[in-house]
Structure formats: structure tokens, C-alpha cells
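Let us work through a complete example step by step.
Step 1: write down the sequence.
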Amino acid sequence: MRQLLTGLNLPNIKFMLISSIIITFLLTFAILVFLLKTNLKNMVLDTPNQRSLHHEVVPRSGGVAIMAGVLLTWAFYEQTWFWSILVLILVVISLLDDIKGLSIKWRFLIQMIVSALFIYYGLSALAWWLSVLIVFGIVWMVNLYNFMDGSDGLAGGMAVIGFSTYALAAYMADDHQIVLMSASLASAALAFLIFNFHPAKIFMGDGGSIPLGFLAASIGVYGCQHDLWAIWFPVLVFSPFIIDATVTLLKRGYFREKVWQAHRSHYYQRLVQMGYGHTKTALYEYSLMISVALSALVLNRSGLMQVAIGLFIWIVIYAILLFLIDQRWKQFQHMTAVIR
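Step 2: predict the structure and record it as C-alpha cells.
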């Protein structure tokens, strides 16, 4: 599957990169406008429930526009056909889930099959236990991205910053295929963000969050095997989502809560509920995402000791941030109970 765009000099690659970014942005933007201006916006609607942070019915078909813009751009590059097929499967299944609803077992089964296909056909031979571990890792990333798509501008911003970081790292490693793929993903997410930043006119929905989570994980694993970055790099780049979702799930499991049920206990959800609102929460998250991304790019070209120190510093920072939010949440709950 690894067919780099060889035989092209640097000016040609730069031209293709700029063209890919512009074309994907314009395609995604045009599709979003079309969706919002026609009755297709009612194809999938997000009705507020106990997990929601919004109070009005909002279309949730924005992810279809993101992936349509990306896949149409990828159609110009022969090297991306395998990725496109896997992404298309996830988009179709996720869209069906948005419209009709699919049981969780079928969703997980399809996600695992797609992840296994990626490992079998997209990577070099791996030990069976490592393949199984990667499958579960990809499926977890797929679903945690979906969990974190609950506040205006959050998932779209993570896609812009995360995939831009992938593109920069791949550019430094001279892997033109991953540069073009990642840059087009970031560009499509940026076009979506115009309509998704608070107050959001359209949501991403499963049709966007599921394939984006898959691509964040699969490109990350692919880059590891082809020496674009170390195994910690994609984890650090997407750590704002990984840490929030994983810690929240572990806490809910520890307190014997039903982890599969909808809830509003993610750290970003608590920030919104405590009065920071969608805009401030998104901007705080963007600051964290950018800081993590820049440090990941620096550490990716550093020695082992510098990497160990850098990762330890981020572990401490996350521990402090989570502790502070937890303490603020307890105070907020106490004040709310007193007022009531």
C-alpha cells in the first residue's frame, strides 16, 4: 500500500499540497452550504437529550461533507484508494446508524473488521498479539473521537490541529502520501469548523467522528511502522481527546456507572456546564492541542532523554489539569445544591 509520490521534485510536491488543501476546502465548504440550503439538512437531526450541551435541534450531517470533500480529493491520487475504501465503509455504516440506529455490537464488529483489514493489507507483517492489540487500539480511538464530539468546535478543531501535525511530521520525513492525505483532512475539517464553531449551524455526527477517529489511529500506526514518528507521537498529538475520554471511562467504571450510556461527565462537558461555554472551552482546548502538537513535533526530532522528559512533563500537566477541573466541579456541584 505504501506507494509514495516518487519522481516529483519539491516544487511539484508543494504545488500538489497547496492544490490539495484548496480543493478539499472548497469542495467541503460547497457541500456544507448545499446541505444547509436544502432539505438534506433534515436527513439527520440531533435532538437534545441528557448528554447534549445544546438546546435546539441541529443537523448532524456535517461529517458527510467532510469525508466527501476528502474522498473526492483523494480520488486524484492513486495511492489513497485503499484508505478511501475503508473510510467509505465507515461513513456509510455511521450514516446508517445516524439515520436508523444500529446495535452497538454491529457497530463494533464492523469497526473491528475495518481495522483488521487495514492491519492485514496496509501494514507489514506483525505478530498476531500485536495485531490484536492494534485492532483494539484503533477501535478505541474510533469511539473516543465520537465521545469527544459533543461541544461546538471541539472535534473539528482537534482534526485541524491533529492532522496538520501529521502533515508537518510527514513532510519532515519526506513521505508525500501522508502529507497530502493529512493536509486534506485538516483542510476539510477547517471548512467544517466555519459552520461548527459556536453557535454551531451543523454537527459532525457519526459520519464524521467515526472515520476521523479511524484515520487518526490508522495514519498514526502507519507512520510508526514506516519511521515517520515513534509510537508515542500520535498518542501525544491526540492526547487531549485520549486523556479526557479514557480517564472519564475509567472513572465511570470505577464508580460502577454504565459506561455505555450517554452522559455529560467528560471534562470538556463539565467546563461547558460550569459556565465557560462552548467558545471559551473550545479556545482553551485549542491552546492545549496546539501546545501538545508543537511539543510533539519538537520531541519527534529529539533524543531519547529529551523525549522521556517531555512526556513526563505532559503527564504532570495533564494530572494537574484534571485535578483542578475535578476540584472546580465539586465546588460547582456544591454551589448548585445550595442554590436549589
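Step 3: interpret the result. The mean pLDDT is 90.
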